[in-house]
Write a structure and sequence with these properties.
alpha/beta; seven-stranded parallel beta sheet; three-stranded mixed beta sheet; 14 helices; 45% helix; globular; binds nicotinamide-adenine-dinucleotide
């Protein structure tokens, strides 16, 4: 039985991880620590709200004293660290928050973990600090380069990926220097429920429903390697159960798509849903393009992202061989579930987009 502290558990992947964990390990206790930035949303955790083994704490990972008290008071043995500023475009226009949360916040957690688990009268050997990182730390690939392995040299290109790379190095150093039991996973692009609609896939789905342009940066030929979010949670689970201390594990689904192709594929899927279910045209009367089956006409090429990485691809051989990891969801099933989730959860995405949920949260916590 484990007691987990999950940082960033009100965000996209963190919330999916909390759902996954409490369902798979109903005896375990999960404490979520989240600052509820624009990306963190209590609505993502509504389904576990009444679970007696779940606790939510509104707070910042940079608050070392708070983290120490949570580790002690809840007898935490496993810290799973998702909290981050995660959007590359925001890191280009405003890097400060990325340096603060991703670097200083991770440093604060490491200091708290060392103090509580290693520096007391008795060392607590059964601890684990799992750091959730990204494939973006490896930089960019050409069309013919082999996929990133755990041995690929770090070469981050955006303020976001540079801040994640710095945090990965700090985590590594805390193992090497102080003996903290750390593991790190580097995952490719996730998609699925609760994905904030500033990211490509949910942005495209919700823009189709609002009959807005589908913005394609540059030539749209950039490649991303997409993984259903629950398969990321499953990969982290395997690393927590059987991963070797001090190691990095790549997690990915062998599923490379050019941006323009994924946008076209989603357009077709949404149109098919509208064709199958006449109620959708009544619920989303503004979705003219989907109703008239000319969604592709919404595709609009826009100025490219500065420093845009051309291609990411994960080689997960180590995780596959050592931990027996294989994604459970195919892209076909995962994207169909995702489109269905957005069609069925309009209230969620409308509220996160217009900020009304954030206003409600601010009122609860003021
Ligand atoms: P997200 O932006 O959806 O969620 C981040 C969460 O962290 C939010 O709930 C936010 O409120 C919280 N948070 C931010 N700053 C905080 C702070 N200072 N203290 C406490 N909480 C804070 O992000 P995501 O897409 O769910 O990503 C989660 C993690 O996974 C990140 O570390 C990211 O780098 C990594 N990752 C993401 C992807 C992806 O495709 N989204 C892929 C690989 C790795
Ligand atoms: O690779 C893992 C990373 O994936 C994570 O570490 C990041 O947290 C996560 O945000 C994601 O980063 P990307 O930059 O790859 O994701 P995003 O959804 O922002 O963009 C995906 C691709 O689509 C990218 O090539 C940029 C492009 N794009 C994005 C948006 C929002 C567009 O062409 N138009 C858009 O409007």
């Amino acid at each position: 039985m484990k007691t987990l502290l999950v940082t960033g558990g009100a965000g996209f992947i963190g919330a999916n991880f909390v759902h996954y964990w409490l369902e798979k390990y109903p005896e375990d206790k999960v404490v979520v620590l989240d600052a509820l930035t624009y990306a963190g949303n209590m609505a993502n955790l509504v389904s576990v709200e009444s679970n007696p083994n779940y606790t939510f704490v509104h707070g910042n990972i940079c608050d070392q004293a708070l983290v120490e008290s949570l580790l002690v008071e809840n007898s935490i043995d496993t810290l799973v660290h998702f909290a981050a500023e995660s959007h590359v475009d925001r890191s280009i226009t405003g890097p400060d928050a990325f340096i603060e949360t991703n670097i200083m916040g991770t440093y604060s957690l490491l200091k708290a973990a060392k103090k509580v688990w290693l520096d007391g009268d008795t060392v607590f050997d059964g601890h684990r600090f799992h750091h959730v990182s990204t494939d973006e730390v490896y930089g960019t690939l050409s069309a013919t380069d082999p996929a990133f392995t755990e041995d690929t040299a770090y070469a981050p290109n955006s303020p976001y990926s540079a801040s994640k790379a710095a945090s990965d190095h700090l985590v590594r150093a805390y193992h090497h220097t102080y003996g903290l039991n750390v593991t790190t996973s580097n995952c490719s692009n996730n998609y699925g429920p609760y994905h904030f609609p500033e990211k490509l896939i949910p942005l495209v789905i919700t823009n189709i429903l609002h009959n807005k342009d589908l913005p394609i940066y540059g030539d749209g030929q950039q490649i991303r390697d997409w993984l259903y979010v629950e398969d990321h949670a499953y990969g982290i689970d395997l690393v927590l159960q059987n991963g070797r201390i001090g190691e990095n594990y790549n997690i990915g689904g062998n599923n490379e798509w050019a941006n323009i192709d994924i946008v076209k594929a989603i357009s077709v899927l949404v149109e098919q849903e509208f064709a199958k279910n006449v109620e959708l045209a009544e619920r989303f009367p503004q979705a003219r393009a989907a109703i008239e089956s000319n969604t592709a006409s919404l595709i609009t090429y826009v100025t490219d992202r500065p420093g845009h990485d051309r291609r990411y691809a994960i080689d997960a051989t180590k995780t596959n061989n050592e931990l027996g990891y294989q994604p459970k969801e195919s892209f076909e099933t995962g994207i169909a579930k995702t489109v269905a989730w957005y069609l069925n959860n309009e209230q969620w995405w409308q509220s996160v987009m217009d900020g009304s949920y954030q206003n409600w949260i601010a009122a609860q916590y003021k």
